[in-house]
Write a structure and sequence with these properties.
Length: 647
């Protein structure tokens, strides 16, 4: 770990920390991670937890580098919060663990929110013709048509199919919706909310849609507004309902939900199944509900209907059912003797639209399928840092790729990307692989490297550099910048001393185009961080032999700031730019670009955890560490560290 009062101090050794613990018997537990890393060029498609954490918003990027300029193009954020639902859960739930009786639990509010989304899509999405008729009406007539549907009455009937806890949770959500529209009658509050959702949904489908009434523009900072626009629960339910059946077979995605206890999960699943049957019928339910507590074979956790349905699990292969897969492995004949316990695993659920409820560790070692796309931790997330990182680590995977496109130069790669229309809207990242160095045969002719020896350079999220899709990579950091005069026009020259955290590989890469952020330590370690007081320089020239850099000041502020003893700087590069990843520095012999076959999964977390990750992002960027290393939950020393003596 590192000392809070000096983020530039070298990492403490295990021996030093043990001695400190002996002096302080009440010290918090330390979680030590010993690294034994070797370069593995053939692991060419593994996406680490750090890659997901790096999609979080960066204050250095938005405040110091981009200065809040936006081109309207966003990147998918793979760790997301839901502040509206989190605020309701924190206020209405007295405790997170082992709630009994009629106490409102986080699970009850989660299910009440899901039921609200299911009602919305059943009444306004299942029948496209009826939905379009309502959308085309003027606003007063649209709301009146929705009032005729008796939405509040139907919602209460759905809650009554569950438990007393869900009934109370539904009343809480209805009260929140009514309070947001204070002039709305209680029985018509859902009509107002669903009308706003319809407008938000139709506006989101086209960039040139006009909002016909200013009252429909909701304040995203008001937690009640989440019920008047498409929220994270809506998107999850929409995907389960509408992306599940194509040409007679199932093809959908898996959502994983973490719960506290078996009893509570059983209660939630019973209510969810009852409402699924009431809304969509029992003959062909749109998605599976799987309860996995780790105590029985997975095949027994899957509803019989979904065991027999053909599932499209691969673009290049015909559909197959889970039962046929089990039979092919010889499990059908041995099922009576319990020999098929491990015959079906999570990865065999590829393509099955489902909600998978996990209790405790579940099947901790199993690999999730490529169709797993959402980890819902809004109800439960560990307060133990080590366990939390293991839970978030479920996102990590070997990503499956589509056919590749070769390139010989950065210009060629950019042309291919534009032709394929990658990176448009919220496009998937593109994996960039470098060709190995060609060898020379005995006759002196070049021999191309084998395709299997290509090494993953990185994931590109955009064509050029320094956009809102950028992902910062800390290259170097240090303390001392000695002025060496001025260059042309607004350029300045500095000598970089006391360089830290620079690997030999990074030392040989050019710094031109990188951004140098000069940080005042007193500001960075205070309670409030004034990002716009930090200086941002673009490096225009770098002399490796003398450590002399030429920079151009890109800072907003022009006031004189004291950067004396105790200040430090960090140099960052846009590591998600296709232009950089395919440059001659990274791919001197060209390479291949591949699009991910599936979108990367994302995690939904509660507000407290989201705030902890936001703090870790800031700490990682100003101290040249990885984000997961900087995660801290309750206790001061409850974090991870690298062993200084690890090899």
């Amino acid at each position: 770990t590192f000392e809070d009062d000096d983020p530039m101090k070298p990492i403490a050794s295990v021996k030093e920390l043990r001695n400190k613990q002996k002096k302080h018997r009440d010290a918090e537990e330390l979680h030590v991670v010993q690294w034994n890393l070797r370069k593995q060029p053939l692991r060419t498609s593994y996406v680490r937890l750090e890659d997901f954490l790096r999609t979080m918003p960066s204050s250095i990027l938005t405040e110091c580098i981009l200065q809040e300029k936006s081109d309207g193009r966003q990147r998918d954020q793979l760790i997301r919060g839901d502040p509206g639902l989190s605020e309701i859960m924190n206020r209405e739930c007295t405790t997170q663990r082992k709630q009994t009786g009629e106490t409102i639990a986080r699970e009850h509010l989660w299910l009440a929110d899901v039921l609200l989304s299911m009602l919305y899509y059943r009444r306004l999405g299942w029948d496209v013709t009826s939905k379009n008729d309502i959308i085309n009406k003027p606003k007063p007539e649209r709301i009146e048509a929705l009032k005729q549907m008796r939405l509040v009455e139907q919602y209460r009937e759905m809650a009554e199919r569950c438990s007393q806890g869900v009934i109370k949770a539904a009343d809480i959500l209805l009260r929140r919706i009514k309070d947001f529209k204070s002039n709305t009658h209680h029985e018509s509050c859902l009509a107002e909310a669903f009308a706003a959702k319809l407008s938000h949904e139709s506006d989101g489908a086209s960039d040139d849609c006009d909002v016909e009434d200013e009252d429909e523009v909701v304040d995203v900072d008001d937690w009640g507004s989440r019920f008047f626009q498409l929220n994270e629960t809506d998107r999850m339910v929409q995907d389960l309902l509408f992306n599940n059946r194509v040409e007679g077979f199932l093809r959908g995605r898996m959502k994983v939900v973490r719960m506290f206890s078996v009893e509570r999960a059983d209660e939630i699943c019973r209510g969810l199944k009852s409402n699924r049957k009431a809304l969509f019928g029992a003959d062909a339910p749109p998605f599976a509900i799987i309860e996995d507590y780790g105590g029985r074979p997975l095949i027994e956790c899957i509803e019989p209907y979904f065991r027999e349905q053909p599932i499209k699990y691969s673009q290049d292969k015909p559909p197959r059912s889970i039962s046929s897969l089990l039979g092919g492995r010889g499990g059908a004949q041995k099922a009576g003797r319990g020999a098929c316990r491990d015959a079906i695993q999570y990865k065999d659920l590829e393509g099955l639209p489902c909600l998978l409820f996990l209790i405790e560790k579940g099947r901790m070692g199993d690999t999730f399928p490529q169709s797993f796309d959402c980890l819902d931790m809004r109800v439960r997330s560990s307060e133990n840092t080590t366990t939390l990182i293991q839970e978030l680590g479920r996102l990590s995977r070997y990503a499956s790729m589509q056919g590749g496109h070769s390139f010989s130069s950065p210009q060629h790669a950019m042309a291919v990307a534009e032709e394929q229309k990658w990176f448009e809207q919220r496009g998937r990242p593109i994996a960039v692989y470098r060709n190995a160095s060609p060898t020379v045969s005995e006759q002196g002719t070049d021999v191309a490297a084998a395709a299997g020896e290509m090494e993953l350079v990185g994931m590109a999220w955009d064509l050029g550099g320094w956009t809102r899709r950028s992902i910062l990579q800390v290259v170097w950091s240090g303390r001392i910048m000695t002025p060496e005069g001025r260059g042309k026009s607004s350029q300045e020259k500095y000598v970089l001393d006391d360089l830290r955290d620079a690997s030999e590989e990074e030392k040989n890469k050019p710094l031109v185009g990188c951004r140098l952020i000069r940080l005042d330590r007193s500001i960075a370690t205070s309670g409030s961080i004034f990002w716009r007081d930090f200086q941002c320089f673009e490096i225009t020239d770098y002399d490796r032999s003398s450590s002399l850099i030429t920079v151009e000041n890109k800072s907003i502020t022009r006031k004189t700031i004291s950067y004396g003893e105790g200040s430090y700087y960090t140099i960052v590069r846009d590591s998600a730019s296709l232009e950089w990843l395919t440059s001659e520095v990274n791919c001197p012999y060209g390479g291949v670009m591949k699009e991910l076959e599936h979108a990367l999964p994302y995690a939904l977390v509660n507000d407290n955890l989201y705030g902890s990750i936001e703090s870790a992002v800031i700490a990682a960027e100003v101290t040249s560490r990885e984000i997961w290393e900087c995660l801290k939950l309750r206790s001061q020393l409850h974090t991870h560290m690298k062993r200084k003596d690890a090899k």
